Amino acid sequence: MPDVSPLTAAALSAPARAVREQRRPGVVHLGLGAFHRSHQAWYTQRAGGSAGSVAAAGSTGAAGSQEPTGERPWGIVAFTGRRPDAAATLAEQDCVYTLVTRSADGDEASLVDAIVAAHDGGDSEVWRAAVASPETAVITLTVTEAAYRHVDGGADLAAPDVMADIDALRRGESASTVPGRLVDGLRARRGADAGTLAVVSCDNLTGNGDIARDVVLSVANAVDSDLAAWIRANASFVSSMVDRITPATTEADRADATRLTGFDDRAVVVAEPFAEWVLSTRVAADGPTDAFPAGRPAWESAGAVFVDDLEPYEHRKLWLLNAGHSLLAYLGPLLGHETIDEAMSDPRCTEPLEQLWDEAAEVLPLPADEIDDARAALRERFRNPRIRHRLRQIAADGSVKLPVRVVAPLRERLARGLPVGPGAATALAAWHLHVSRQADLVSDRGAAGLGAESSVSDVLELLAPDLATRPEPVAAVEAAEDRILRLLDTPDRHRSPQQQGAPA
Ligand SMILES: NC(=O)c1ccc[n+]([C@@H]2O[C@H](COP(=O)([O-])OP(=O)(O)OC[C@H]3O[C@@H](n4cnc5c(N)ncnc54)[C@H](O)[C@@H]3O)[C@@H](O)[C@H]2O)c1
Ligand SMILES: O=P(O)(O)OC[C@@H](O)[C@@H](O)[C@H](O)[C@H](O)CO
């Protein structure tokens, strides 16, 4: 390989460097993972300022293409969720990183420079100062579904770490959970009299802004009711539907990026070309009257859409894309597959996938042609052979994901007198087999009680207690489980001899 230099801000073109110097640190982000870098940071970059193009030879594109608007371009102060590593890595390269946009035909690399600072989320002093800064107008979140610690109507106040946070916050000390950290930051903002702001959730949950609000207010109430009242009046909580398939980065991805740019980048992110962001403008009756009371980047100029009623968009995405992902993530490994595209080449996976989509389509509040288009696009996106999206990554935390992706549309069907359907039943049965028979693959503390002896009723009790005593769902999932077990016993041309002996 020709000369490879470490990636720093010096790699940016002169106009991009000029834009970067003007960036206003108005967005604070919590959860500095792959998805934030491929999605919100990319939208923010494209929303204002000039291109973040690569100055060096070998570049193949620019992350931003907007002309300067006259307003200062926005910048992001990003915090890791759990470990400091990602912040340290990014900070070492001036927070500039490569986005590899990977289509079925090839890769395009661009540099993203919208992040202006990266910090360890455990550094509570820096976190408080960032949230309390009068320049901060928006907090965005990508912390995973499980991190909200959500139970009906609020945070799980009986969970030991949430209880510990409440005690710590009462003593004026820092918190460790996401709801606790948000309360800690917002208390500092109240203390600084820095005024209103918006909290935007970008995690795969229905009504994710409402969930963020509920968990924050419940923890704040337990700490200090005046603080809760201040947060209610000053912080808007914005729900958003986010979409861009972004697998965890591998060493091979890093090498690909280096080949394209000539830089050694330790914070590369790879994503599909498709991207969607739909944000709700609806506000709570007792909160700020504007969803973004302190302003925001012009994300719409980068393709984001603002709507009053988000529900159809989030249901489309969660009940088709994410439900399909979860079905494949549990069924696929049982059949010897490792990635989404591998599972998509196996009719034993695609048949229940299409059934799952048929079932969701019947209760989606959208025109049939829109649903057909979305399904056609998903087939193509899932089949992209160059996006190696590992089923194991998607499988994590099924106990939190399945209620949102699979149980919610199923409940909607039952409410309308429709049958359970084999697609949803297969997803739930495959999850049961995954957690009860593939312990080495399971990463889900919510599923800890489901061992080899667990039954379908136990599964439903955990995911959907209201369905656990109803004969139809139990029978449908049991029948689906039998079907999967028969598949596992049947030699198939899709399975290598090694795989044929594996699961059971
Ligand atoms: N990757 C995608 O394709 C994609 C697409 C749409 C939405 N999302 C949403 O973004 C989330 C993150 O995805 P990612 O690809 O960036 O994952 P990632 O593993 O790269 O990053 C996850 C981030 O969340 C933080 N985190 C995890 N658990 C936490 C906890 N308990 N408390 C605080 N922080 C915690 C981690 O520290 C990390 O910063 C997903 O869970 C999903 O809700 C991801
Ligand atoms: O990121 P998670 O863990 O919520 O879910 C895994 C995937 O289903 C998800 O990341 C999708 O790739 C994404 O939602 C596509 O926009």
Automatic annotation (TrEMBL):
A GO MF term: mannitol-1-phosphate 5-dehydrogenase activity
Sequence ranges assigned to domain Mannitol dehydrogenase N-terminal in this UniProt record: 26-282
Comp. bias (Low complexity): 53-65
Key words, A-Z: Oxidoreductase
Catalysed conversion reaction: D-mannitol 1-phosphate + NAD(+) = beta-D-fructose 6-phosphate + NADH + H(+)
A Pfam family: Mannitol_dh_C
PANTHER family cross-referenced by the UniProt entry: MANNITOL DEHYDROGENASE 2-RELATED, MANNITOL DEHYDROGENASE DSF1-RELATED
Protein name: Fructuronate reductase
Species: Frondihabitans australicus
